[in-house]
Specification:
The chain is built from nine helices and two strands; from the N terminus they run αααββαααααα. It is mostly helical. The protein has a two-stranded antiparallel sheet with strand order 1-2. The chain is globular.
Length: 251
């Protein structure tokens, strides 16, 4: 076991060479299709929701609340359970962490992947999945997390460097893009008279501000994370492509 953990640590902390341009672009296109194409989004959104609920609980623990568990449902909704003061800064931070969480996790993943730590990012996601597994409190959530953990663990343990690079880029971009789409869907639902018990409305009641203001805050946070994270992941590749194209132009 010690040897296995040592191997995992060495792989996670060793930077990989920069991947091929085609691999990065393929990962970016794949991530975009997974988030934009409705049938794929119906599956991918489960992962975004899982990170959303995990971030609720992580911030709850950091602010001194007692964490109780997570429920994940087949309609891609979820619920994070904790106990503590019903008002105050801790409750505000915990509630705000949901829609912002996937974007922040995606940005952290982009930071690591952009510096070559593809395997490290994937193992970090495995650890996050294990945390969620320990917190799951319903059968559907248990099944989805077990499948996710098995696939992610197998991919990270047996994948080639090219597979690691592709997966790490794609997952980071899916989290960044998916966070933005989830917030847009929240805003549209509220405009249509639905989702009046959302995190944005809960924050509005906690801070005595309009719920729409918090939707705008989520848009700004997730949009900024997407812009910065996408630049870290794809920006150097696009710059290289642009430079190569410019070199081919007649002078």
């Amino acid at each position: 076991m010690i040897d296995v953990l040592r191997d995992i640590w060495e792989a996670a902390t060793t930077a990989s060479p920069a991947p091929e341009t085609t691999l990065v672009l393929a990962a970016a296109v794949t991530a975009l299709l997974l988030v934009v194409w409705r049938p794929a989004w119906g599956v991918v959104r489960h992962g975004v929701t899982t990170v959303h609920e995990a971030c609720h609980l992580l911030v709850a623990a950091l602010t001194g609340r007692r964490i109780m568990g997570i429920r994940l449902h087949s309609d891609t909704s979820g619920l994070a359970l904790s106990k503590g003061r019903p008002r105050g800064p801790g409750m505000v931070l915990m509630t705000a962490a949901g829609y912002s969480g996937p974007a922040v996790v995606g940005l952290a993943a982009a930071f690591g992947v952009g510096r070559g730590y593809d395997v490290g990012v994937l193992w970090a996601l495995v650890v996050l999945a294990i945390f969620v597994l320990l917190m799951i409190r319903n059968w559907y959530g248990l099944w989805t997390i077990l499948v996710t953990l098995a696939l992610l663990g197998a991919l990270t343990w047996w994948g080639t460097p090219e597979v690691h690079a592709f997966a790490a880029h794609a997952v980071a971009l899916v989290l960044l893009l998916g966070a933005v789409r989830a917030v847009v869907e929240l805003g549209l639902s509220r405009r249509g008279g639905r989702a009046r018990s959302s995190d944005a409305d809960a924050l509005g009641k906690l801070t005595r501000t309009p719920g729409g203001l918090w939707v705008a805050v989520f848009v700004l946070v997730t949009g900024a994370c997407l812009a910065l994270g996408a630049w870290w992941l794809v920006g150097p590749t696009l710059s290289g492509v642009a430079d190569a194209a410019a070199a081919l132009l007649p002078r």
